Each structure stands twice: as structure tokens, then as C-alpha cells.
């Protein structure tokens, strides 16, 4: 969105200029800043970037002082010479004085700017101003679109929560991440490059601000549209199935995922009393499979990653379980709520007897990737066991699980992707 600064001491003229700008599509009122003098304009330009500044050439230095064309010209020189000022991309001069237009037109033309004569009873100034701004808006939109399309990343990584999942991720690569933002998006993104002796991979990462399939699917969709990564990886923690021989910190890669809450609630009636005895859930799940290419890579990686897993476990400085760290590939169920009930967990397991874990995000991420536009992004969920979804669950191994997930993810990227 284009940002505009209007430097004008005449209130009626300010209103007319603002009204003309708001007639243009894709320019919103909150993108326009109005100041009455040079001093206020400098203050704003010290703090913010603007695509366009509209300057009344005959302007006072500060409130209460006389307006002068010399003030406007000196202000333009200051913008060019003061390194503390953030220069606008384009500047339009606007003045009611015909003689000033003739006197200073070359000053503006030499810098590829415009100087327009303003007459309240004429539409000429309005047409020239809106024509220039419309061109800037279209140019800006094309630049943003091309920048987003061309700035491809090899890998996008996301987590469901800032802590402990994203904290563990940002410790990868020696914590050498650069924070940045996409225009008009409040999400904080981070970028880095994973490098070893054989390859380098450009990486972008972000975290959702809450758990769940809705938040994760939304963030996944944004990252796919913005960065066009070849692979989208979901890292973090999950509940594991205890009788599947899973230890705390073990890494689970989702071979398939589904929404265990998808289905319908039906009434169970008693034929004798003709009343409702109970309500029953009938699942109607549709799973999404891990991309076949990625599944083959995981299968290959599992055969040779024993020393990597040992190294990850040995490098953890805190408390760790006595079981040896393992990597598992299998079905992972997703739902809209945290499970801390053995009875509920068994109910979900009846949907898929080979299920190895249950969490809240994977299906949303797999769905976003499966429905992404061409070239499509391939998604993989790599999460580590922090509890067993029982009433006895606690947070003891959450940080360890977040660490093993992020660490294994790094090695998988550099080995297989």
C-alpha cells in the first residue's frame, strides 16, 4: 500500500488534496499523513518511509512563522543532504503562486519530480495529481508482486507456538536469523541460509500465535503465497501413543494426517420410550498422505540417521529420558483440542489403528500445501513426543522435544532436501 505525506499549511487546500487522493483505488485514509510545516515534516521523515510527499512550496518552517518558497526549496535540499531523513521515493510540489511555478519548475524537473500549479476553482491540478499518484500505485503494486514472486526460498519452516517450539528453531544455524516483515502483514518472519560443505538452502520461518488447524493453515497459506518454497516443514511437539514404543523426545514424521473431529453427531434413540438416550459421533475423516517423494526421502534418511539421533540426544544440556532417541514414520491425527484423556485417545485410535501421535496442526498444514497453486509446495510434519495425551501429562520434556524436532529437521533438510 502506498504511503503519502502531505506538507500543507492551508486547511482548505489540505482537505481538497486528501479528497482527491482518496478517490484513487487502493489508497486508504490511514496511509495519508498531514503536517502543516517543515519542522513537522522533518520529524515524520526521521521516523517513517513514504512513497510520495506532496509539498506546498510556499510553506512556513514552523507554526506561527511566515510562509516562503525559499523554505520549501531549502527543505528539498535538506532531504537530499541529511542522512537521518528517510527520503520519499517521489515528491510533488503544489503551489497557488503562478510565478513560483515558473521560477522553480526546473528545480523539480531536474530531479524527475513534478511541480503543479494549484487553483481551487480548476480541475487541472486535480487531474495531474491523481494521474501521477495512480501511476505510483500501479508501479508499487507491480513491484511488490514481482518481489514476492521472485524472492523464492528453498525451505519454509513454521511452528504452532513461539515457546518452546519457535525458540528451539531460532537456535538453529548458530541463531543467525534476520527478522523481516511482509508489507501489511503483522506476522514476524525470519530468514537465514543453512550451509554445509555440500549445499546451501535459503530458509524462511515463522510461528503462529496460537495452536490449532485454523491458525496453522492460515500461516501455511501465507508462507506459500509469499515465498513459494519448494518444501514447507512443520516443527514442534506432539502427544505420542505410549504403547507404540515411543520415548520422550522421539521424532514423529506424519505419513498421513486427518481431522479426527470431522463427522457428525447423531441421536441414539430408545425404541421402547421413543426418547433420545444418547448422542453419538460418527466420524467422516479424509486423510492427506505425505507426498510420495518426501516419503521416499524419509525412508532413506531413517536407514542412516542413527548417529545423527545419538548426537542430537547427547548434545542436549538438560534432563533427558533414558530411552534412546528414535525417528518414527506413521499416521498423525489432528484435532481442535488438547487430549489429556486415555478414553478419548482410544476413541480417536479406532479411526486409525496404526496412529502414532495426536496433535492440533499437521492436517491444516498438509491441507494448505495440497491445495496450493502451481508450482506446488510439498509439506512435511516433523514433531517430537512431549507427553502421552493422558491425565498424567506434564511439561517436563516440552523443551527437549522442541529441541529434538528442530535439530532433526535441520539434519533432514541438509541431508535430503
Please describe the structure with a list of short key phrases separated by commas or semicolons.
single chain; Rossmann fold; alpha/beta; 2 domains; five-stranded mixed β-barrel; 12 helices; five-stranded parallel β-sheet
Describe this protein's structure.
With about 425 residues, this protein is an alpha/beta fold. The protein has two domains: about 5-150, 3-Layer(aba) Sandwich (Rossmann fold); about 150-415, Nucleoside phosphorylase domain (Rossmann fold, 3-Layer(aba) Sandwich), CATH 3.40.50.1580. The protein is about 40% helix and about 25% strand. It contains twelve helices and 17 strands. It has a five-stranded parallel sheet with strand order 2-1-3-4-5. Strand 8 and strand 9 (about 200-205) form a beta hairpin. Helix 7 runs parallel beside helix 11 and helix 9 packs antiparallel against helix 12 (about 400-415). The protein starts with a strand and ends with a helix. The model has no long low-confidence stretch (mean pLDDT about 90).
